[in-house]
Amino acid sequence: MFKRIRNSWELVKASASVLRADKELVIFPIVSGIGVIVVTLSFAFPMLLAGFFDALLKGHARVFGLVVGLLFYTVQYFVIIFSNAALVGAATIRLEGGDPTVRDGFRIAWQHIGAILGYALIAATVGMILRWLSERGKTLGRVASSILGLAWNLATYLVVPVLVIEGVGPLEAIRR
């Protein structure tokens, strides 16, 4: 297990050095940031609408808000994970001695689109659960949500490189 962690950490450090050396690869985090802004703006009206419908259904489950929230989280995570996968793909080409282009990175991410979408849905679900726990549990819920969120982030920090490099599905990547 420690060998895997050490190898993964070495990959992270190598990827960071590739990003410093290949300034054109900074486009991936920029695309991610722009994508997050576009997704947030495109969900502003549906979120307001969902809140309106949920207010009409007082006493009932907040179905519309939950559906829109899960969809929002999933799309946000997808944009971020897709861009990160493209960066990992380009960094891998560089580490193998090649000269990656932005197109190469996006091509590699596209090859893993199913795993990226699956992981985005899993991450969105976990995010919704943590948010629910934080909102409902007062002080204890916030503390539990923070601890569980930290544990989730630590446990899944290297999922994207595993998805891309090892070509496994999201559940296997999380397990590894």
Tell me about this structure.
The protein has 176 residues and is mostly helical. The chain has eight helices and no strands.
Briefly, what is this?
With 176 residues, this protein is mainly α.
Pattern of helices and strands: HHHHHHHH
Helical fraction? over 70%
Topology, number of strands: 0
**Overall form:** globular
The profile of the biggest β sheet is: none
Q: Which stretches are low in confidence, meaning pLDDT under 50 for 5 or more residues running?
A: none
For the CA atoms, what is the radius of gyration?
Answer: 18 Å
Mean pLDDT: 82
**For the terminal residues, how far apart are their CA atoms?**
9 Å
Keywords:
176 residues; mainly alpha; 8 helices
Topology of helices and strands:
Elements: H1 2-21, H2 27-56, H3 63-95, H4 102-111, H5 113-136, H6 138-156, H7 159-166, H8 170-175
Helix pairs in contact: 1-3, 2-3, 3-4, 3-5, 3-7, 5-6
